[in-house]
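Working notes for the structural subgroup meeting. M.R. asked for a predicted model of this chain before we commit to crystallization trials. I am recording the input and output together here so anyone reviewing the notebook later can reproduce the run.

Input as submitted:
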Amino acid sequence: DYRPEYGRGIEDVRAMLSRIRAAGITPGLHFLHTHIGIRSRYVTPRADHRLNKTRTFTLARPLGADDDEVWVEQDTYGMVMSERCRILQFGTELISYKGCSDEPPYRFTGCKRGVYGTVAEEHPMGLQGGLVDVSEFGHGHSFYLDQNSSLQDEIADKLAQAYGAGFEFAYFDGSEGTNAPFEYH
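Returned structure, recorded in token form:
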């Protein structure tokens, strides 16, 4: 998606690139091809199901829209505890947590519902969700996309369209953040 100052979308990008070339500068496109910005429409108001998850959890109890504990079937031992990386996704909702029990019954505690502008809603027992793969680079300002989903190709098409506006080189940043199998992605 284009920023508001590019109201005409790709046409404004082409005009900007023409001015850059006219000034004697070679325009390049720098992007993190594995990352989704936390303020993008892929995150808010409904988080896309194709955000990468590093662990999967199944709700052991129904989750009400105001609940501050998330009860799960799976062991929570070894969970991520870095403040900006403690994000769960169930349905299209993102939920932050402060702690978790590492003995049965397993649960996440101190939960804040509807983080990153998502909608807090009820979720049925048995719903699967998971720990969102938050980029540790840049202090948690992006999530990794699931490169084994259609989102990889969707983002590639958007990058190709932007590049076709007149950029002359591309810098693929963040390649160290690819999903397994790494040699494929």
